[in-house]
Amino acid sequence: MRSIRPSLTARRGRGGRRTSTSLTAVALVSVLALTATACAGDDNADGKPSAVSTGDGKITIPDDLRHRLKEHGIDVDKWKNGAWKNWNRDDWLREANDFINPIIKGLWDPDRMRGADDPDQGVDDNDISGDQGVTDPTPQPVQARAVTPPYHTSAATSGKLLFDAPEGTMVCSATVVTDPAHPGKSNLVWTAGHCVHAGKKGGWYRNLAFVPSYNDQGMSAAELENASRSEIAPYGVWWADAAKTSQQWISKGGETGGDGASYDFAVIHVTPEQGSGGKSLEETVGGALPVDFDAPAVSQVQSITASGYPAAAPYDGQRLYQCQDKPGRLSIEQSDPTMYRIGCTMTGGSSGGGWVETGADGKPALVSNTSIGPVRSGWLAGPRLGEVAKSLYESVSKQFAGR
């Protein structure tokens, strides 16, 4: 089983043993938006940028802020000149409260967006060694169907999550979700834990950015070669200024197998790279999905729709797809919550994409996200969202409640 992960295709494979329900608080240390001028290398005479952008305005970087950032491994001048590419062990194995994601304007240009890699590392379907709980028969594959463009009309809350890992430029899928602290004005995005953090053998990924309605018109790979940034990212590039995933994922998660898969979820808070004229992400795309943390039993769910941008063959990561199926159960280990599983042919890159169910009120709600799947595709599994996921979600919301 492979972790469908970022177009790193992380489908995390083997289920990890439940260790605790505590959360890793990923504090926002600083959001540093380097100006376009600074990124282009047009600095002051002393070789140092004098200002940063926080969206629409500019402020001078105080010396004490520079020093504080350096304490967390960020040298503003070095970072904007390419230090974000360096992955030494001390940086990679940061403590959980050291999530830092300075904005580098223009970094995610059309070429980098299109070229996000898919280093999928899977294992055999039989490698589910901890399957001690209730698991239903393997579902029949459901052929993923291409979403009709424009995606903004048919799937406005879906998008791509781009980031850099030691292996290179990567991609996942993600979903805009509501924010209880900011009704109608959410800047929260839901994805898989393995799309923001490498798990027990790594640390936080870098340059995390969300692109809602990526390739909104559904252009082919050939057409995208000449597409402008505004055509590829019509609703802008939104950088993560905070990210949280479960302690279970950080402690147990791995690139292959299913360790930590039952807790493979994450919430990020985003801010627009170029400013949004005061509009939130939810207002910009025109919607956000509520999250259902009651973890409805499989028998109560008639149908789940999973969305994502599959990037591993036979897909190319440029178009949005969906699978719809009645879920079954997958248990990786008896001590961990049982996961949802559906038939679906989507591959790596679809990791982190939202799973949506129509609730009793007739309205859609996010109930899971793509986490793992077999090497040869055919099905996907996602965690059931309970108290751990709810606490994580609420903590990110509260972090920005007064802003």
From TrEMBL:
Gene3D superfamilies this protein is in? Trypsin-like serine proteases
**Which terms are listed as keywords in the entry?**
Hydrolase, Signal
Decide whether keyword Hydrolase is in the record.
Answer: yes
Compositionally biased residues, Acidic residues? 118-128
InterPro entries this protein is in?
Glutamyl_endopeptidase (IPR050966), Peptidase_S1_PA (IPR009003), Peptidase_S1_PA_chymotrypsin (IPR043504)
Q: Where is this region: Disordered?
A: 110-143
MF annotations from Gene Ontology: hydrolase activity
Signal peptide segment: 1-40
**What EC number(s) is this enzyme filed under?**
3.4.21.-
| Annotated protein name in UniProt | Trypsin-like serine peptidase
